[in-house]
Amino acid sequence: MTLLSRITPWLRPMLAAGAAAGLLASCSTLNYYTQAAQGQLELLSDARPIDDWIADPGTSTKLRHRLETARQIRRFAVSEMDLPDNNSYKNYAALKRPYVLWNVVATPELSLKPLQWCFPVAGCVDYRGYYDKGAAQAYAKELQADGNDVEVGGVAAYSTLGWFSDPLISTFINYPDGELARMIFHELAHQVVYAPGDSQFNEAFASTVEEVGVEHWMTRFGNGAMRDAYARYRGRKHDFLALLMKYRKALEQNYAVVDRGDAQKRVVKARLFQELKDEYQVLKGSWGGYAGYDRFFEQPLSNAHLASIATYEDFVPAFRAMLKRDGSFPRFYRSVRRLAELDRADRHRILKALAPPVTPAPLMVQRSEAPPAATPVY
How far apart are CA 178 and CA 196, in angstroms? Predict the structure, then answer.
C-alpha cells in the first residue's frame, strides 16, 4: 500500500504537490517533503477535542485546568478579537517529545546571512523543519561538512495558516497564562493575514495582535500576580534579545572589515561569542538567576544562532497606529489585507510612514516557525 493511499484525502494534495516538487529537485528533497507530511498527519491524528480530555477521568487536574484556560482564551480570541472561529486550538495532542519539531538554520562561516529554502505557499524561508530530531541533526551535519555554521533549534508551536486545525500541544500547554494567550493570539493572527516571503511584515502584524490581545485579556481575566509575571517575562525576553542583537551587530562589523583576513576574522568571531556567553551570565544574575534561556547555549554558539535575530518589531508601532485609526479588529484586518496585496517595497514604505521612528525591540522568529509542508509561522 502506498503512502498516498494510506493518508487521509485532505492531506493527499499537499503531499502530492510536495512530491512533485521534490522529483524536480532530488531524492533528498522528496524525503524531506514526505517526513513533513507524515509529521503533520501524526500530529493531527494524535489530537483529541479539549472537551474529551477534560471529561476523561484519567486527565490530571493540572492538565484539565490548563485546557480550561486555553479554551477560555480561544473563545476570547473569537468574541473580542474577531480571530478565526475554526477548529484550531480546540483539540489537544500529548506528544512524547519536548518539541513539536526542530528547525535547522545555517549560514556561511563568516556571514550572518542565512541559507534559504523555497517552498510552495510559504515562499522562501531561512530554515528547514524536521519532526524528528535525529533527521534534523543528520541534515545539519551535511551542511556543516560544506563549511557552514549550523544550529538545530527546538520549536514548541507553529501555524499552518488555517490549512489544518492546529492543536494545542503538550510542548506549550504549561506556559503561564499570559504566555499561553500570547501564543494562541499570535498563531491565529497568522491565519488572518500572511504575505509569503515577508517575515518582517507577518511577524510585526501577529505581534501587534498578540500584544493588544493580551492587554485586553489581562484586563478582563488577569490579576496582579499574573500581570506582574507577564511583565517580567516580557522584560527578560527584551533584555535577552537586545543582548543577542548587540553581538550580531558586532559580528556583522567584523565580517565587513575589508582589510581583515579570514584568519583574523575567525579570532574576533571566537572572542565575541565568548564575550556573549560571559555577558549573558551577568544578565542572568540581574534576573535573580532565572535560567530559562540557558538552553540557547546548549550547543556551541555560531552565526546560525544569531541569523534569525532581526528587528521584526520595527513595524509594530505602525500596525498599532493602524488599529487605533481603524477602531476595531475587523476593520484593522481589512486594512492589513490590503497592504499584503501590495509588493513588499510598497507595503514597507507605507508602514514606515505610519509611525514615527522608534528604537525597535528585536524578535527571534526562528523558534516559532513551521516546516514548509505545514506552512510556517511563529
Answer: 29
Per the structure block, which three cell numbers stand in for 241? Answer: 534579545
Backbone angles phi, psi at 48, to 5 degrees: -125, 155
Supply 132's cell numbers: 524528528
**Residue 18: C-alpha distances to residues 15, 29, 66, 254 (Å):** 5, 9, 36, 40
Q: What's the chain's average pLDDT?
A: 87
Length of the chain: 378
Provide the pairing of β-strand 117-119 with 149-155.
unpaired
Return the C-alpha cell found at 43. Answer: 500530529
Q: How far, CA to CA in Å, does 335 sit from each of 207, 285, 327, 328, 353?
A: 16, 44, 11, 11, 15
Q: Is 318 left (phi over 0), alpha (psi -120 to 50) or beta?
A: alpha
pLDDT > 90? residue 20: no
- Please state, in angstroms and rounded to a whole number, the distance separating the CA atoms of residues 143 and 139: 6
The string over 147-158, giving b where at least 16 C-beta atoms fall within 10 Å of a residue's C-beta and e elsewhere, is ebbbbbbbbbbb
- Are 95 and 170 a contacting pair, CB within 8 Å? yes
Nearest to 315 by CA among 364, 359, 352: 352
166 secondary structure, DSSP code? P
CA–CA separation, 343 and 41 (whole Å): 34
What value, to the nearest 5°, has the Cα angle with vertex 97 and ends 32 and 130?
15
Q: pLDDT (tens digit, 9 = 90+) per residue, 65-99?
A: 999 999 999 999 999 999 999 999 999 999 999 99
